[in-house]
Amino acid sequence: MSKQTSGKKATQKATGKRNPGTRTGGQGGGRVPAPAAVPAPETGASLAPELSRRRLLGTVGAAGAAGLVVGGAGGALAVTAAQDAAPTALTSIGSTEVAFREARATHQAGITTPLQATGHLVAFDLAPDADRKTAAALLRRWSRTAEELMAGRTPDADTGVALDAGPSSLTVTFGLGHSFFDRTGLTKRRPVQLDPLPDFSADALDPGRSNGDLWIQIGADDALVAFHALRALQKDAAGSARLRWQMNGFNRTPGATAQPRTARNLMGQIDGTNNPKPSDKDFDERIFVARDADQAWMRGGSYAVVRRIRMLLDDWEKRSRHEQEKVIGRRKDNGAPLTGGSETTPMRLDATGSDGLPVIPANAHARIAAPASNQGAALLRRPFSFHDGFREDGAPDAGLLFVCWQADPLRAFTQIQRKLDRGDALSPFLRHEASGLFAVPPAAEPGGYVGRPLLEG
């Protein structure tokens, strides 16, 4: 079961001139820049597609009660009244920017970035006649587009979907599947960590919604910004790769609670308490590939396991709160272990009740998944919830798009999942319907693109 990440704070900047002053706020304790004034468009400026999203920010904020009128003579976008007014900065949600290349980090954005409100997971297969050169050109285009969009700018031939929006914490993360190396003639450079995951007894996997040559994770705090990125990247792939599968998810919007809190999943459980923290001395060792790894192109990268896990919510919601807490091993209201304390209080796995039985049942999800029960193995969980309508029996087609990060899937995800597979009390309420494993290279170097050391090395 996934846990919400409490990962590193994203690099964040105001949409106007850079300002080192920031204030703390938003979900996950991220640093939110103080609002910055954004210059209004020049008088008489046209709203051509190449106009950047940042350029419109002041105009949109200043439009105020008058609004922006679509239609009228010639279907023009009326902004004349706004151009003479003082520009208004975006709210903190819209202005937050995550760097495509973080100065002090080698990993891609979207791994330790605080959870965003909306997300898309999408996989592509290279075109039948594609080769290594084709793959390199595609990743070059994708990297260029991602960098533009994450900075709040619009790429060439833009659709205009997010023209009046700021970066909104947009992140785009790229990964390579096991089959990518066969398609590009690079099997000798495929890491052993990318070997296919074993079968688990609870699996009911749909091959059409699993794996893929290439994988993209998109996250943002605005749904239009996320869709805009998805559409731009899909257009970039035309002729080089075809869509294999897509999954859409969501989380709580930053600022929706009075103070930052760990998210809840669709079962109503606080989800993410035990995530490794960047402040942990062994965080990098657990999550990122070591600098002395055999495959040099993956050093500083990570491995993502992706699972579509449908929750049997009708069955779950029939259980009493007491039964649910026994299944999880934590209180539902505040996430505290059944042995007492607060959400962050360590579980006392050896505590017994007056009946002599463990207070946290032997098959409780939190007990089985705990690092102490798995020789210290831990995952950085960074999921999205999903709801794709209702099934024929009326049950919600809803659950978790589970995404977890680790330096070695065999020693982390596989080890933990095998143990959960043997007796997790939560398993009867879950269905694992899709799966994928992807090697996520480090961030692109200045002037380069994600995966360049592999494809051009």
Automatic annotation (TrEMBL):
Enzyme Commission designation: 1.11.1.-
Extract one GO cellular component term from the record: cytosol
Molecular function terms in GO for this entry? ferrochelatase activity; heme binding; metal ion binding; peroxidase activity
State the residue spans of region: Disordered.
Answer: 1-49, 324-347
Q: How many and how are cofactors bound here?
A: Binds 1 heme b (iron(II)-protoporphyrin IX) group non-covalently per subunit.
Question: What does the UniProt keyword field contain?
Answer: Heme, Iron, Lyase, Metal-binding, Oxidoreductase, Peroxidase, Signal
Which cofactors does it use? Answer: heme b
- Can you give the residue ranges of the Dyp-type peroxidase C-terminal domain? 262-444
Q: Its principal location?
A: other
Query: Can you cite a GO biological process for this protein?
Result: iron import into cell
- Where composition is biased (Polar residues), the residues are 1-14
Every copy of the Dyp-type peroxidase N-terminal domain together lies at 108-251
SUPFAM superfamilies registered for this protein in UniProt:
Dimeric alpha+beta barrel
Q: Check the record and name the PANTHER family matching this protein.
A: DEFERROCHELATASE (PTHR30521:SF4), DEFERROCHELATASE/PEROXIDASE (PTHR30521)
Report the function annotation for this chain.
Involved in the recovery of exogenous heme iron. Extracts iron from heme while preserving the protoporphyrin ring intact.
Q: Kindly provide the name given to this protein in its UniProt entry.
A: Deferrochelatase
Its source organism is: Streptomyces auratus AGR0001
The beginning of the lineage is:
Bacteria, Bacillati, Actinomycetota, Actinomycetes, Kitasatosporales
What gene, per UniProt, encodes this protein? Answer: efeB
